[in-house]
Specification:
Length: 222
């Protein structure tokens, strides 16, 4: 990969990351009628969309042949259970990180994330010291866990001949499982009451799509 393409991918990644954080922050503080969307379900939907995106890319690499796609998925995932299980650890950490990001952006004030608003002062006063501490701890934990998971995942990619798309399908599969467990444990009652997609709107789907696009730019840099 040329250096220019890497720099371009890096620039896109920075833009998408910034857009994701600001959009996610706004979506978690926007006051609307009815229940707010559940961050745990948004994490699961993002993982499922990542799997779909990677399957499409594998399909493209397989010369748009469904038979070839089925063979690749069977040979590289189902027939290599130990290789697939290696992704359980980083997947669990990434799932935790994604949930912590929502926690952080729901608790930290706008000024902390440099969110432009005319009501920054009043917003800061409304948030208790306790909630800001929770948000800060969530950010710190997410940063450290992300670093470890990133190094671990890169190590796996360098030690294997499997494509990065296959690895991300494996990663997303475990992420979906862990994410659904989180939904059941923490938000099961709310899901039963108001549904899995409670509080979803256009802004919520923008946040989810930005998370999926974030994956592709990150891989281009690698």
């Amino acid at each position: 990969m040329s250096a220019n393409l890497k720099y371009l991918s890096l620039g896109i990644l920075v833009f998408q990351t910034t857009s994701l954080v600001l959009t996610m922050r706004y979506s978690r503080t926007l006051k609307e009628d009815g229940p707010r969307y559940l961050s745990s379900t948004a994490v699961v939907i993002a993982e499922l969309l990542k799997i779909i995106a990677c399957i499409i890319l594998v399909y493209k690499d397989s010369k748009c042949s469904l038979r070839a796609l089925n063979r690749v998925l069977h040979d590289e995932i189902l027939n290599k259970p130990m290789e697939t299980l290696k992704l359980a650890i980083p997947s669990g950490i990434y799932t935790l990180q994604n949930n912590l990001l929502y926690v952080a952006l729901s608790n930290l004030d706008a000024a902390t994330y440099q969110w432009p608003s005319d009501s920054q002062e009043s917003s800061s006063k409304e948030l208790s010291a306790g909630s800001q501490f929770v948000g800060l701890m969530a950010v710190l934990t997410a940063c450290f866990s992300s670093g470890f998971a990133g190094v671990y995942f890169e190590k796996i990619l360098k030690e294997t001949k499997q494509s990065v798309w296959i690895r991300n399908i494996q990663l997303g599969s475990f992420g979906s499982i862990f994410g659904l467990m989180g939904v059941y444990i923490y938000d099961g009652e709310l899901v039963s009451k108001n549904g899995f997609f409670q509080g979803y709107n256009k802004l919520t789907w923008i946040v989810v799509v930005l998370q999926v696009k974030h994956l592709k730019s990150y891989i281009c840099i690698e």
